[in-house]
Amino acid sequence: MSHVSSHSPNGHAPPGQSPLRTVQVLGGGGAGSCVHVRSLASGLVARGVRVTVCAPAAADHTYGFSGVGAEHVPVPGRHGPASVTALRAACADADLVHAHGLHAALRAALALGGRRVPLVVTWHTRPSAEGARARLLRVLERRVARTASVVLGTSSDLVDRARSRGARDARLAAVALPARRGPAAAGEDPDRLRPKARAELGAIGRPLLLAVGSLDRYRGYDTLLDATRAWRGLDPVPLLVVAGEGPLRGGLQRRVEDEELPVRLIGRRDDIGDLLAAADLALLPGSPEARPVLAQEALHARVPLVAAATGSVRELVGDAAELVPPGDSGALAAAVVGLLADPGRCERLRDRGTVQAATWPTEDETVAQVLSVYDELTRPLPLP
Fold first, then answer.
1. What is the pLDDT of residues 175-230, one digit of tens each?
2. Which of 57, 110, 153, 297 is the most buried (most CB within 10 A)?
3. Rounded to whole angstroms, how far apart are CA atoms 9 and 31?
4. Please, which residues bridge with residue 323 across strands?
5. Protein fold of 21-176+362-378
6. Rounded CA gap, 134 and 143, in Å?
7. Peptide bond into 183 cis (omega under 30)
8. Of 55, 44, 46, 54, whose CA–CA distance to 21 is shortest?
9. Which CATH code fits 190-357?
């Protein structure tokens, strides 16, 4: 490991000393953690920190870590000898390693092999499991929590979870949502973009509802499709558009066709900001992420949000969204129908969303907090 001396809070090394070198480790490359790491890498590089991002090649292609000045080292997303070997090489001269997620942290700990290199771990999601898998999950979480120098939780419940698993130092993470790139973000007139996007999706003259996220079992899509039955009787019938890919795609598509549901699965998209600008409501029937990207983007875009009321989502959005019990399709359907019939309620949610979003940390604040942690962990102990 390179010699670590005192680093200034802005990341620049004192004269004659090499800059702090950090390695950011991503696991499977979930959207929330990838967006966060790209933002973090950009801010750290701008402050003179050397950043290496270890992530699957597809993640760099999608999120552009190397485009913000970080070195990208392709590491397989799955756990195995190849990923640990690649990580060990990448971490060989690191001053500090920062892993994002449970599996990334496990691999980082294996790669470090007990070397005295500080390990920071950020928990972005609430893993779910049952039976034997739940017991294994607790074991793995305990191992990570006790190995890490600092665990950063992106919500209060994740901080509490880390402490309950034995973390010696667990703190609430400041996590910003970077602005989306694309036509809407580039200053084009939303009123001009909106009809074009709605026409493309087939939502002319009818309400447009938007859900975004990978099509996996923890995001509540079956509950969402159940809810669509309740608004088939409305005139006009709202159209639900789901942007994302995942293992449930085939089964969800069969349900849409067999049950003749007013739903379109449009796959992974890179124009979510434009889709949001066209939507009447955003729907979040479930999410393992503590700070779901869609919830943040909806409030920023002044799009009324209906979301499953998990603890972390409630903490994130406050009273700026219509919250319903997780897994309750009737409550979800009623909330959607009620909002579509109440423009005044929608406008109040838009205004509350603007106020709530203003309380979230900025990218500069996020980078400053992380740099403070890095400085604390790499600062040499005073001589006796």
1. 988 765 444 444 555 666 788 889 999 889 999 999 999 998 889 999 999 999 99
2. 153
3. 29
4. 307
5. Rossmann fold (3.40.50)
6. 14
7. no
8. 44
9. 3.40.50.2000
